[in-house]
Amino acid sequence: MDNKKTEQLKKYTVNNEGMHDLTTNQGLKMAEDEFSLKAGQRGPTLLEDFHFREKMTHFDHERIPERIVHARGVGAHGFFQLYESLEEFTKADFLTNPSKITPVFVRFSTVQGSRGSSDTVRDVRGFATKFYTDEGNYDLVGNNMPVFFIQDAIKFPDFVHAVKPEPHNEIPQGASAHDTFWDFVGQNPETAHMVMWVMSDRAIPRSLRMMEGFGVHTFRLVNAAGRSHFVKFHWKPVLGMHSLVWDEAQQIAGKNPDFHREDLYEAIEKGQFPEWELGLQLIPEEDEHKFDFDLLDPTKLWPEEEIPVKRVGKMTLNQNVSNFFAETEQVAFHPGHVVPGIDFSNDPLLQGRLFSYTDTQLSRLGGPNFHQIPINRPVCPFHNNQRDGMHQMSIHQGKTSYHRNGLNANQPAPVPEESGGYAHYQERIDGRKIRGRSESFLDFYSQAKLFYNSLAPYEQEHVKKAFSFELGKCKSDLVKANAIALLNHVDRSLAQEVADQIGAPLPNENREVKSDKKSPALSMADTVLLPDTKKVAIVRVGDPDVERFAEWTTALTEKNVNFTIVGHKLHDLPNPLKVTATFETTDPTLFDAVLLVSSESTIPAPALAFIETAYKHYKPLALALSDHQALASARVRLDEAGVYDLAHSTIEAFINGIAQGRFWKRQL
């Protein structure tokens, strides 16, 4: 670059490393940058909050056209059907009519990485559902974790800036294991609960079909009589909750970065349709203050043992998209897309999202008419006085485009609430305008402790290793020390082990929350265990007995288990032993279990490595060998849990092992 150009660029250089007053883009010095302006500490966010609006609008328009967060996603179509009417709680039509089948579109995503990042990174997963109801589109825009990092939306740009690749070198991609993210965590103790979830196995799901979904925020359901219940939404996977192990997730990122999207696509193509049950946690409005947590705090969950999840319907995904860009990339979600009978709480993170999402769609999808893109169009008619604008796709007729009007009999006309018109719940609001945080939001650590207490021993071990990996990647001693100080509030032994691993100081004073309270629902250890749709690699060495081989593959097929035959080279001619993948084209990390079938006295190194990797990741193994001495050099113990010698065991026992998934006794 020539000197003239260098000098020109210097004029526009802003150095933020020195001491500066924080101002708006207009130069106004701001006294507060952590809290949005609310009507009372627990009240709704106010439209006049120009600072929040400026900050969030700038953030929403920072990337064109890729989503700033949730850029890498995959979507599918399906339907939802209710089990029984919920008219006691809501007047929403799709939640009160069990005979109605409501079309849906679901988009799953990672948060941090770009569109080109890997599926299996350690990250939160987005779980956004668009219901095309007869009363309009309803969007349930959530994640696979029930809480979030921050309590107030004004800090969302800060959180995302911290977790994104660092701006000076755009590293790392699709990862939170770096200084700026953990610096944010250390400076914002409200993150404590969420980072426990992100360091758990929930952040590396085995499949999008095998993870929970949550609406995260507290919403309202309002029935026809005007009675309100606070509600949290859950998606419970029929296949249960299952995860990868970290070493496996890293290998898959290199072997098949499209692992999750391919898994979803193939399952639907095979007719193995993913299913989730919709669950509701409900609290009558009058019971709002009966708990030891604030219902409006998005860093808090509602323990299922205290507030049970009522399963009310099922969602099935049964159709892949026809065009990824037109559907998955152009779908526009918004938590403010609601229908009568569903309303909002004053959760300050939710309140900010209600401002933000329209801005994002304007930037990404080219203007105010993004709702006319086919994937976003309601299935019911829509009429209003909005005209023109970029990418207008409708040809409007008529002389009037305003309300009220006399020339067109005031059409289109508002609809009274009793006839189905949307009316906001009339909540009483009292309070001064204030930037601040309610004292009821100041408990940062008790639910982080609850989550850790609730995990099985092997899950706790994974959390320790995850913290050690992530903080071990940080360069700053200050960042490491502050993160350990935060963990010291959650669990002293956890903080001590991680500190020892990363060479950081452990605070002298033990500040651990003293609680042995547990919530079994937070552990994945007792999840549904099914063999259905899991994937088995049948490693073929030599020419095994065709009849027995056919018996095994038939048994797998009958239990809805998918299998791939792996060998040294592909075969041209079709036969029951046909090899369809080689050691070069596939990998044991891409399967849930391995069956080694050998008629030889020597097993080649690639086949041994295949079963050793699966064994290392605690997966079930089945062995059908003509010569057991061929395994003498393998790092596989035949007497370990989850290893089935088909000379003495049965294929049915192996299938039961596939259902179990992992044999964690090998780890502990």
UniProtKB/TrEMBL annotation:
Presence of keyword rRNA-binding: no
Top EC group: oxidoreductase
Domain Catalase core residues, every copy: 23-411
Catalytic activity: 2 H2O2 = O2 + 2 H2O
Source superkingdom: Bacteria
Pfam families: Catalase (PF00199), Catalase-rel (PF06628), Catalase_C (PF18011)
Annotated protein name in UniProt: Catalase
Functional note: Decomposes hydrogen peroxide into water and oxygen; serves to protect cells from the toxic effects of hydrogen peroxide.
